[in-house]
Amino acid sequence: xxxxxxxxxxxxxxxxxxxxxxxxxxxxxxxxxxxxxxxxxxxxxxxxxxxxxxxxxxxxxxxxxxxxxxxxxxxxxxxxxxxxxxxxxxxxxxxxxxxxxxxxxxxxxxxxxxxxxxxxxxxxxxxxxxxxxxxxxxxxxxxxxxxxxxxxxxxxxxxxxxxxxxxxxxxxxxxxxxxxxxxxxxxxxxxxxxxxxxxxxxxxxxxxxxxxxxxxxxxxxxxxxxxxxxxxxxxxxxxxxxxxxxxxxxxxxxxxxxxxxxxxxxxxxxxxxxxxxxxxxxxxxxxxxxxxxxxxxxxxxxxxxxxxxxxxxxxxxxxxxxxxxxxxxxxxxxxxxxxxxxxxxxxxxxxxxxxxxxxxxxxxxxxxxxxxxxxxxxxxxxxxxxxxxxxxxxxxxxxxxxxxxxxxxxxxxxxxxxxxxxxxxxxxxxxxxxxxxxxxxxxxxxxxxxxxxxxxxxxxxxxxxxxxxxxxxxxxxxxxxxxxxxxxxxxxxxxxxxxxxxxxxxxxxxxxxxxxxxxxxxxxxxxxxxxxxxxxxxxxxxxxxxxxxxxxxxxxxxxxxxxxxxxxxxxx
Length: 572
What we know:
By secondary structure, this protein is of the alpha/beta class. Helix 1 (68-71) links the parallel strand 6 and strand 7. Helix 8 (217-228) packs parallel to helix 9, helix 14 crosses helix 15 (396-409) and helix 17 (456-467) packs antiparallel against helix 18 (475-489). The longest helix has 17 residues, at 173-189. The protein is globular.
């Protein structure tokens, strides 16, 4: 009989602790790591990892697989990018608790905030639940990775307050008590925590602001206090920080009354001001006072994709576009090449749509780039559509139209609207390397027609660990942040480290050739819904609980993943 189920031999191990990489073997038995070092025993299976990077599986704590987890066994695109654990239920949106009469409202909220087609949600969601505990049961079952979720404030508010909650009326003391009780019950049932949104960017598909936008501090602190009685759970927030001092004080109060950790989205400062530096300073002060507050930061610019098959394109509000919008891609390109129609399109009125995420920016050709088959997420200013159009002697609109007609009308443009104000990622590097931040905000499973950032973990290693000309970051630090540190931020202490007793979630990576591919469109959601997907090259083996789930990016058929119920302790 073999000593181990699996031994990964001779790889360059980044063990998730931040320690320097070293050559070592990793042995696995019964779904956990049993040895790291020179392993002398035998195994049922051995993998030769000579020349490859061996790392813990990546933990992505900011995704939106709330619907997909109920109908799908594969959390793609995240599972193509070395991710072995995802957390959803972020930004206050989700599908439980729910009254039967409120199904449409929660679909409209998810459709608007996260750009997931309503038709796909209506067909995919079976709604066999009302309580959060029953929703967890609907998510349970074989998966290609571990999944975990949080109880969303939007659903709580609607469940307790009805139309008053949807209309953003102030919660009464009784409302707050009921929401706190339900949040605590959800966490006791297995939710990792509670999430909310306080940004005006989040709207329903009917154009209304998210129900949680203007919730008073008393409401959030009251819910936090109730969560604290469970002795477990975390908080996740996103905010516009209209009043930075007042908002952050609320964060502090939530942590103080609950004794629980809190994390929130933090992005690079706009073109002027000290936005992210100020917030980092506030985090440092909170930490010095014993409050466990962490910033969740993106690893590259947050940008929207524009294309004829995407939710957004620069001509979408142009009346001439409506003449061809319904056509198949090849037919549409042929129609747009008609000289008369092309002239009318370029001469006609454009316009924006501020009800859609990124819809107000679709004519900003000065910060728009061609996506390409091998994306580079720190493009220089001379590659903008405006600069390339000037070199070609045409207008930006004409140049953009020609780019979008490439590849049979499926080519995409990319418009980074956050974290790229200075046309570089120096500010992002500052965020990524801060003591109290973790990489997050991939939104895996969401924004399926406009954004495909589920590839964040690949960019983290590829760009920051290998490609960036200046300011590269050590690979061992990047792995630590995307594995151990993200896991601990949400209370998962049993993974993210390659050491005896830890969960055997691993990646074997061809680091020199690790690369995110260009986004592509698929029509594989329920009801034939469209989504943007992005694959990667370089992941030789992805292993969940000791079982290989992907080999060279292809599914093995194994589904060892499970629903995680609540925080997980450090292995003894």
